[in-house]
Amino acid sequence: MNVLIFDSPKEATEAAFDIVMKRLEAGLKTIGLATGSTPLKLYEKLRSMDIDVSHVTTVNLDEYVGLEPSDPQSYNYYMNEELFKYMNFSATYIPNGVAEDLEKECERYEEILKNHPVDLQILGMGPNGHIGFNEPGTSFDSVTHITELTPSTREANKRFFEKEEDVPTKAITMGISSIMSAKEVLMLAFGEAKAEAVRRMIDEPVTVDCPASVLQNHSNAVIILDKEAASKLGRNK
Ligand SMILES: N[C@@H]1[C@@H](O)[C@H](O)[C@@H](COP(=O)(O)O)O[C@@H]1O
């Protein structure tokens, strides 16, 4: 793991942006994308650039089960609004959370991932250490699957919904093994709410109890933190 710590989310985002731009210039074919508030400024910078990405395919990590792509809380909607409608990607893939047969949808998505091996995966993390929607306890061998969201994740994500009851209880997510197949991973975590999960990801042994800790096993993972997210690092050493 290559851990980079910056004074502010702004500087951290700039560093992430530079890495993404370098990889695009070097001919990256497939980029894995994440949602949540953490990469918003990164996407804002990317969409403001006048760059040709017609040779680039995107694959997203996850989607809520039961939300139509037209639902403003869906990750389909988020990606369209934040990035896709401004950029000429060759193809953009996000799991379909309203597929009639969700198991088939997971298989279809794994096929897409096989056909589009991810060169660079952008990742965020949940305050409980989840990546994508792989909650604590998820097997490191997991591929795209349906997952039950934990009460803490529903609580953390309820800020995007009008009422707590509106937060979906399930999601489709790329599995941990699907995420680990990326050639390079760029994990972003900002703010004190992530500090404990960041500490467990970096300073503690790899465990399914903190899914992000699996990145210790990745040969090319860059972790970009602001100083708040990094504030609990190194205390056990
Ligand atoms: N499934 C997504 C994750 O992929 C994301 O990393 C996480 C963090 O969100 P935020 O960046 O808003 O803290 O939110 C959701 O749970």
UniProtKB/TrEMBL annotation:
GO terms for cellular component: cytoplasm. Keywords: Carbohydrate metabolism, Hydrolase. Its EC number is 3.5.99.6. It catalyses: alpha-D-glucosamine 6-phosphate + H2O = beta-D-fructose 6-phosphate + NH4(+). The keyword Hydrolase applies. The active site is at 62 (proton acceptor), 128 (for ring-opening step), 130 (proton acceptor), 135 (for ring-opening step). Residues 21-222 form the Glucosamine/galactosamine-6-phosphate isomerase domain. Pathway: Amino-sugar metabolism; N-acetylneuraminate degradation; D-fructose 6-phosphate from N-acetylneuraminate: step 5/5. GO terms for biological process: carbohydrate metabolic process; glucosamine catabolic process; N-acetylglucosamine catabolic process; N-acetylneuraminate catabolic process. GO terms for molecular function: glucosamine-6-phosphate deaminase activity; identical protein binding. InterPro entries: Glc/Gal-6P_isomerase (IPR006148), Glucosamine6P_isomerase (IPR004547), Glucosamine6P_isomerase_CS (IPR018321), NagB/RpiA_transferase-like (IPR037171). Catalyzes the reversible isomerization-deamination of glucosamine 6-phosphate (GlcN6P) to form fructose 6-phosphate (Fru6P) and ammonium ion. Belongs to the glucosamine/galactosamine-6-phosphate isomerase family. NagB subfamily. HAMAP family: GlcN6P_deamin. This is Glucosamine-6-phosphate deaminase. It comes from Siminovitchia fortis.
